[in-house]
Design brief:
Length: about 80
């Protein structure tokens, strides 16, 4: 069966994979279970989409800030209505 993506569909997938790897170092993350890998990928996409919605220019720096300041992360997720 052949599937054709809409114009630009392939590149939008490649761009998302690039963002997930560069911003979240996803290629360095290894999981032993397929379900965990799918969950990690979904969460990575969610994080990137939320940060893009905020017009964050340096996603990796913002993620580092969240890692250092957990309360800031919780406030962000609450404001975005994720929690």
């Amino acid at each position: 069966m052949s599937y054709s993506m809409p114009f630009g569909g392939h590149w939008s997938v490649e761009v998302m994979h690039h963002k997930r790897d560069v911003s979240l170092s996803e290629d360095d993350s290894r999981t032993g279970k397929a379900g965990a890998s799918r969950l990690l990928g979904s969460l990575s996409t969610l994080v990137i989409n939320l940060l893009e919605g905020m017009k964050i220019k340096n996603m990796a720096a913002q993620i580092d800030t969240f890692a250092d300041k957990f309360t800031t992360l919780i406030q962000f997720l609450t404001q975005q209505m994720v929690l």
